[in-house]
């Protein structure tokens, strides 16, 4: 099981995939958890989720998934698990919040909310990371190399 989770190669492409998703998701998680980058922090995130009709547990799980999933991707640590969690969060966001607003993001500022094009890209990156692993310069690669010795 351990080997399947950490198995990866020395691919630069996998490195680029995980860094791209990690660089996007970690700040979103930091907004929700710590209030960084103009975010609400955990209590504000929980309030927002309540306003949208979602329970506290879901707010906490999404926040943890985005923050620690993004951090895991940046470090290349259990990237497949991190990517799977982020993929589920993005799919949930499409199904519960963004679907009624259509495909496109609100580039012109003319709609009340955002569409789901961003989420599709994140899901695509997450799937690729789950297939290929962490790639070059990852903790997963180091763990897999040490385990195989």
Report on the structure:
There is one protein chain. The chain is mostly helical and 149 residues long. The chain has one domain (8-148). 70% of the residues lie in helices and 0% in strands. It has seven helices and no strands. It has helices at 2-6, 12-34, 41-51, 56-75, 79-98, 117-132, 139-148. It is globular, with a radius of gyration of 16 Å. The mean pLDDT is 93.
Category from helices, strands and their pairing? mainly alpha
Instruction: Give the domain tally.
Output: 1
Distance between the termini: 16 Å
Determine the mean pLDDT. 93
The portion of residues assigned to helices is over 70%
Short description:
The chain has one domain.
What's the layout of helices and strands?
Blueprint (H helix, E strand, L loop, with lengths): L1 H5 L5 H23 L6 H11 L4 H20 L3 H20 L18 H16 L6 H10 L1
Helix pairs in contact: 2-3, 2-4, 2-6, 3-4, 4-5, 5-6
Which features does this protein show?
149 residues; mainly alpha; 7 helices; 0% strand
